[in-house]
Amino acid sequence: xAENNGGTEISPNMTxxxxxxxxxxxxxxxxxxxxxxxxxxxKILEVLAFKTLKHKGQAWVVFEDVSSASNALRQMQGFPFxxxxxxxxxxxxxxxxxxxxxxxxxxxEKRKRHEGKKRKEQHDPNxxxxx
Length: 131
Prior knowledge:
Elements: E1 2-3, E2 9-10, E3 15-19, H1 27-38, E4 44-48, E5 58-63, H2 66-76, E6 80-81, E7 84-85, E8 87-90, H3 96-102, H4 115-122
Antiparallel strand pairs: 1-2, 3-5, 3-8, 4-5, 6-7
C-alpha cells in the first residue's frame, strides 16, 4: 500500500495523484500528454489538471479499474515527463466521476474566492458607516 506524508496508508484505488509536473506546459497539452502516456495501462475515465496556483504541477488520472491504476503507479513512478520525474501515489479520496457511478457522490460546497476580503472590509473601522 502507498503511504502519504502523514504516514497513514492510502488504499489502492482507481485514481492516481501525480505531482512534480512541469508547470510551464499548457493545461490542454498536459492533459493530452498524460492521457497518451497512461492509456497504455488501461481505459482512462478522466484526466484532471488545473491552472490555479494551488494545483499547478499536479494532476489526477482516473482509470476504469484498480489494477490499471496500480500498474501505472508502479511502472511510471519517477518517469521523466517533460524533463521532471513524476511522483505518483494513489489519490486520497474517490474521484467525483467514480462516486457518481457508484452512487456515493456528495456535492462539495464551492469556496467563495473573495469571502475573506469581504469579511475584512466589513470590519474596517476606516470604512464609512462604522460606529
